[in-house]
Specification:
Length: 414
């Protein structure tokens, strides 16, 4: 069987199983994303090891291609999250977002450092473990809040804003850490200043260009061109450009660039048309692949002995530190106790940024390889726990409200 046919077979199984599992999860009163995550574990090396069955060859690199397609999924998911918000709402939540994002980083770094020292790590290794646990991935939470139709609530907007602060602080912290330890290719304070300026410049230039050109002029011009789906192609290309620029030019995570692009297009008079087109692409193919792929890259069989104990400790720290840190920041910012708890739980999930940080640590000899396996376990468990916990903290929508939700993931159990 050719590499292409192997990929076609794998994608058919992944997408079909994701939709079936999402539907079953929805029927059981849980977010559809929970079913997709669980089916990823079922198909992954933890149980069936689907991609290593006899009819898949290593020369086809099917797993790598699926991983790359999954990256498109997370970009699209964060773009849609940004598209569903108004800049004015995000500005209004600035105080809450700043406090929640900042304390949501400080608490995991401090508690992670203590955990690392308890396991006999050096000061450098323990601090790096804390930095790894500080990285939040709100793509899971954003999807859950969209399913509950509360993404534009005060908690939802503050959560996404806090995630932006979180991403900036973690990437900045990593840059500072590597600069001070001599592993970042920079020179101390100078490298730190350059990193901060790159981030600020990217956000400023991205917003100025986006607000001045994209929503009205370029969107209207593209929509009139006599080409098939020209508007959606343009939007998709700009999203990819923002994602690329965020990481390469701004020194930030690509998902932050995709989210920023969503905010820009959210001001367009053709927003509904854009949302329909992009959502069709995202929820039919790429987003299910992203959620399933989380389980495909995890291998619970590797967690034994000390690494298993370390993972359990890291999971506890990951949960408690985010709920307390981000929740306290949200409370200080003016949210109610319940809203602060909702935001703290929404910040629990870890993801690609944490994996990137821990990979840098392993490659630079700052932490041991078994820490990577433990971090993957943290990503899986916090990702699985976040959707049902978030759902339990929000009032369940009435059946009539569910029918009117515009998010396509509700209709077909994405």
């Amino acid at each position: 069987m050719s590499p292409f046919l192997q990929l076609a077979l794998a994608l058919m199984v992944i997408i079909t199983m994701a939709k079936l599992a999402g539907y079953l999860s929805y029927r059981l009163g849980q977010p559809a994303v929970l079913g997709e995550l669980l089916v990823g574990l079922l198909l992954g090396p933890s149980l069936l090891d689907f991609l290593h069955l006899s009819f898949f060859t290593t020369e086809a690199h099917t797993d790598q291609v699926i991983h790359e397609l999954a990256e498109f999924g997370v970009l699209l998911l964060m773009f849609i999250a940004g598209l569903d918000l108004h800049l004015s709402d995000l500005v209004k939540s600035g105080k809450v977002s700043a406090l929640a994002g900042t304390l949501g980083v400080v608490a995991p770094v401090g508690m992670g450092y203590v955990l690392g020292k308890l396991f006999g790590m050096t000061d450098t290794g323990a601090l790096f473990v804390g930095l790894t646990l500080a990285a939040t991935s709100v793509s899971i939470s954003a999807q859950t809040l969209m399913e509950l139709n509360v993404l534009r609530s005060r908690v939802g907007v503050s959560l996404l804003g806090a995630a932006v602060f979180d991403d900036i602080l973690v990437v900045l912290g990593l840059s500072i850490f590597l600069a001070l330890t001599g592993d970042g290719g920079g020179s101390g304070l100078g490298a730190i200043v350059v990193t901060v300026l790159r981030m600020a410049a990217f956000i400023l230039i991205g917003m100025v260009i986006g607000i001045a050109l994209i929503p009205d002029r370029l969107v209207r011009w593209t929509s009139r061109l006599p080409i098939s789906q020209g508007l959606i192609s343009f939007v998709f290309a700009v999203m990819l450009l923002y994602a690329w620029s965020a990481e390469v030019l701004g020194g930030m995570a690509a998902i932050t660039g995709a989210f920023l692009a969503g905010l820009v297009f959210g001001r367009s008079p053709l927003k509904e048309r854009i949302e329909t087109g992009i959502s069709t692409i995202a929820y039919s193919v790429f987003v299910p692949i992203f959620f399933v792929n989380i389980g495909l890259v995890a291998n619970a069989r590797e967690l034994t002995g000390d690494s298993l104990v370390l993972m359990i400790g890291m999971v506890l720290v990951a949960i408690v530190s985010k709920v307390l840190g981000a929740g306290l920041g949200a409370r200080l910012g003016g949210l109610t106790n319940r809203e602060a708890l909702q935001l703290g739980v929404g910040m629990m999930s870890r993801g690609e940024v944490g994996l990137i940080v821990v990979t840098v640590g392993v490659n630079n000899g700052l932490i041991e390889p078994e820490v990577f396996a433990a971090v993957v376990g943290v990503v899986i468990l916090t990702t699985l726990l976040t959707p049902p916990l978030l759902r339990s903290l929000f009032d369940r929508p009435k059946p009539a409200e569910v029918v009117t939700v515009k998010n396509p993931s509700m209709g077909d159990a994405s």
